[in-house]
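The instructor's notes for this session suggest beginning with a concrete chain rather than abstract definitions. Hand out the sequence below and ask the class to guess, before any prediction is shown, which regions might be ordered.
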Amino acid sequence: MSPAFHDLATTRRSVRAYKAEPVPEALLQTVLEAGRLAPSACNKQPWRFIVVRNETTRRALGAAYAREWFWKAPVIIVVCVVPGEAWTRSYDGKNYALVDGALAMDHLMLAAAEAGLGTCWVGSFDPAAVRTTLGLPDGVEVVGMTPLGFPDVEPNPRPRSRRPLGETVMKERWG
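After discussion, reveal the predicted structure:
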C-alpha cells in the first residue's frame, strides 16, 4: 500500500458538522468520478448517484434521517443501485448490487477525504421516506447517503479502534 493511501485510509473520519460553504463543482465532479470508477461484479456498474443541493430537498431527506447536521451540509449524495442491472451469482442467486453500490460509496468517500471534504456514511435511514422525497422508481434501491462539504470541526487525531489484523485475517479454514 502506498504511504499516501495508507495515510488517507488511516486519517479519514466521519464528519458530523459542515460549513455552509458550497462545494466547488470541480471537487464534486472529482468525487463522483471516483465513485464511477469503482469496481463492480462483471463490470455491470448498477449504481446511480443522486446529488442533492437544494435546501428544501435536503431538509425533506431529514425526514428519512432526522439529524440536523445531515441535511445542513451543502450537498447530500444518495447512492442507489438497480438490482436488475447487477450481476447475480449462478450458484446461489446472490445479487451483487448492494456490494457494488457499497464499493462506489467507499470510493467517493475516500476521494472526498483526499480533496479535503467531509462525508459520513448514513445507513440508518427510512428507505420509504427517501423513495418518496426523491421520487425513486420501482427497481431502484438506496444503498446509503452521505452529506458532503467542508468539515466545520477538526478531525479527532486519535486512531480509530480496530480489531488487530490477527483477528481479522483467517487462515485456510474459518476459526
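Then share the key points. The longest strand covers residues 141-148. The chain has one domain: 3-168.
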